[in-house]
């Protein structure tokens, strides 16, 4: 590890002036009053950028309640002369900073206002805000700026590359037809296969963090963000599966349902958010066991498809596992990063 404090290695601007663009005369930080407008902006952009899924309003609203985010400083909104919100850009410092400080860049431009340079200045602002975040970390830990982009959003990737980010990993969306037979798998000896229950939330968090400890780009979840996910409106405990040894959760498959995505995908579906096995229990068939239960529960609930995303280069062999379970690749997305 580099013994030099991250704050000494990152050259961050002291001040962060508002971006300037002739077609967006007003730029300002976000407030909770902007949630609906930001949601509408992402909905319009999503029809072009990722037509098979939507960004829920609740996900945007979380940015105004989570303690590690200051929307007034971490997000900038751009308004046209008519007062319409035309772009949003943000830089969010991940709350877990024990081993690495990671800033995620997010944002979009309304499809009607693209290829005019608005996205370029908006992302440049977010990158400078990311540098401010990293420059505030006195610990001698690595720093990282990351941005996710769908394969079809080549303009966004090109802008990110111009500010110094490069593609570090590809992820693949995979879909399974639940009309196809779902193999049943019994719980291995000494374990119990049960649905997720809210009282197990922190045990499942511990299992999740152990399972993903060395996964590329993954950082530990903290209680605030975890609670926003598991206590939110989309997680389906009845579809989510746990494998338990005694009181210890050793494998998990957490699934959610957002009915707004059904029209986009064409059929009722569930999204599998997380699949993980704790590190000292791998190689025992635990992952396909929890996945099979979730697929069967989703089928029995009347859903027609299951969707997940996978790191195409994962050393766990996840891609091959999902293929063997009947998932087929559809879209791809990339993660662009810069390390400090």
Using DSSP, what is the number of strands? 12
| Total domain units | 2
Tell me the structural class.
Answer: alpha+beta
Head-to-tail CA distance between termini: 12 Å
Q: Give the number of helices.
A: 11
Could you tell me the strand content as a percent range? 25-35%
Looking at the structure, the CATH topology of the largest domain is Aminopeptidase
Under the CATH scheme, the architecture of the largest domain is 3-Layer(aba) Sandwich
CATH class of the largest domain: Alpha Beta
Q: Kindly report the name of the CATH homologous superfamily of the largest domain.
A: Gcn5-related N-acetyltransferase (GNAT)
- What is the ordering of alpha helices and beta strands? HEHHHEEEHEHEEHHEEHEHEHE
Write down the overall mean pLDDT. 96
How would you characterize the overall build of this protein?
- It is a single chain.
- The protein is 30% helix and 27% strand.
- By secondary structure, it is an alpha+beta fold.
- It folds into two domains: 6-164, Aminopeptidase (3-Layer(aba) Sandwich), CATH 3.40.630; 173-333, Gcn5-related N-acetyltransferase (GNAT) (Aminopeptidase), CATH 3.40.630.
- The chain has a twelve-stranded mixed sheet, sandwiched between helices.
- The chain is globular, with a radius of gyration of 21 Å.
- The mean pLDDT is 96.
- InterPro entries: Acyl_CoA_acyltransferase, Bact_Acetyltransf, GNAT_dom.
- Residues 1-24 are annotated as: Disordered.
- Keywords: Acyltransferase, Transferase.
- This is GNAT family N-acetyltransferase.
- One of its GO terms (molecular function) is acyltransferase activity, transferring groups other than amino-acyl groups.
